[in-house]
Amino acid sequence: xxxxxxxxxxxxxxxxxxxxxxxxxxxxxxxxxxxxxxxxxxxxxxxxxxxxxxxxxxxxxxxxxxxxxxxxxxxxxxxxxxxxxxxxxxxxxxxxxxxxxxxxxxxxxxxxxxxxxxxxxxxxxxxxxxxxxxxxxxxxxxxxxxxx
Amino acid sequence: xxxxxxxxxxxxxxxxxxxxxxxxxxxxxxxxxxxxxxxxxxxxxxxxxxxxxxxxxxxxxxxxxxxxxxxxxxxxxxxxxxxxxxxxxxxxxxxxxxxxxxxxxxxxxxxxxxxxxxxxxxxxxxxxxxxxxxxxxxxxxxxxxxxx
Lengths: 148, 148
Description:
The structure is a homodimer of 148-residue chains. With 148 residues, chain A is an alpha+beta fold.
């Protein structure tokens, strides 16, 4: 795994203890796609499937991680907070939670570029979680970023 | 605390281990208002405030708990899942997380009553979390309920 992915996961586990309790791991960051995984067991619910709150939290972290990675790539430093989130649960997640977030230069690029010249910006990002080959969860988060 | 609140908290901790890791506790269920609390420490984030994912998860649990309590009161048994959630973070939560969910008989009563006669229903519920006397978080969840 890239050193930057190790640093992201280490930051999460050290500074967001619930991310460690959920077993959140960075899988990869390739071609502007960040993939994050967590086992089902620590995130199980009363139905034996993944807890809706864990699914959301993993999406929220994945989107946050994407912003953190893209700021790093751009040589920028920012304070990143989630301002708003919405999520739809289309089907139950019955195995490991694998969350994917894609950065589209045409969609999120302008907001990121604006931050180089401005004290703050907002970035909207989507994450998805599939289960047995089908989309189970779709998350949209709006992240507020400001210079430190 | 009422026996029913003890049972709700015990169910969460036994069957949703991340709810125990977050330190989620039922505070009270009085006059159709459910109050749930979790300490800041297990839910802290990189900014030293409450993690957005924990705030959402605690709201999701509180809404679920409200549906569970109201089904019990009505003598009904149902399989409760969160179908959709949205949340707005207006300000950072800097202390214990105290989440409140109110059941309004005029708003949610008809959906609950319908479930007595039908195999499934949907209930929309709101939760709020205040910090230092001001609203910090507003959550809206749509819960799908079906007979077992």
